[in-house]
Amino acid sequence: MEFMFSSVLTIIYLVENIAGLVCSVFIISVNCYCYIKGQGLNPIDQIIVCLTFYDAIFSGSNGASILCSVLLPNATSVDKILSCISIFSVLSCAWFNACLCCYFFVKICDHKLGFLAQLKRNIDPLMPRIILAIHFLPIASTLVTSLSSNGVYTANTTAPALQKSFFTYSGENVSIAFALMFINCGIPTLIVTVTTAHIIVSLCKHTRHMQENVGDAGGPNLKVLRRAAYTMICLLIFYIIACAVLIIVLLSQDQRVHYINYLMGYALPSAEGAILILGNNRLRGACLHILHKYRAKSNHGGEGVSTTGASQPAS
């Protein structure tokens, strides 16, 4: 019974990580293709590429960890390295999510304050430096998280696919772990929440203004606000779930809790990829183009089969 449970979980985990990896690679490939074609990448595209790059690392490291737990069940050191890579990718995604929401907030909303108004004019040239600076805190936090742990805890089970290793903390190290999680989860969550709320308020004000003065709730500016608000709300919900999963996985030693949280955590990259695709014109257009080509090819193949069958003489 436990072997069957292990096999089912292993398959589900692998499918989730493959889906996240495929989704992330698709987003990166579309942006790289446009860059090669000379279209260039705006700051939003640059942030999305970095975000999905770490999503791909997260899915890849988790997939490798699952395979190692099956093929090399006693390779604790390898599992610890993969866990560090996974933690680093999650923390990087957290800050890039906050960065994306901040960019929406600065560029879309009207700012009367001098600093924000000046930042709105100068943020595009600064974005490459901001993206580079974002990497330092996740790197430092991952190193401290791994070095301050007492070691690793391996789940006690006879099923090889479920023998996962986790960091353990005690004494002052627990406070260090909580502080790092607050910095890397609490602060980005606060940023995403504040900027999302401001976007929603701007959307409501703009909609009311359009209805009172124009008599229409449409317009390109309103569509941009709606799409940004939708994307940011989805990212906020996604990010809260991701932070909760990360904290529980790092600090809990309950085997059943790990199974549930990993089941949710492995699905996060594909969920975030879907949010980004639906909220970005370029990605959504590329996805629809592929789907239309596949549908046209399928319809053409079906018509060919029907025509061939009709041309055959009756025996």
Automatic annotation (TrEMBL):
For this chain, one GO molecular function annotation is: G protein-coupled receptor activity
Q: Which family does it belong to?
A: Belongs to the G-protein coupled receptor T2R family.
Naturally occurring in which organism (per UniProt): Xenopus tropicalis (Western clawed frog)
Q: Where in the cell is it found?
A: Membrane
Q: Where are the transmembrane segments?
A: 12-36, 85-106, 126-147, 176-201, 229-253, 259-279
Q: What is this protein called?
A: Taste receptor type 2
Q: Which SUPFAM superfamilies match?
A: Family A G protein-coupled receptor-like
> What does the entry list under GO cellular component?
membrane
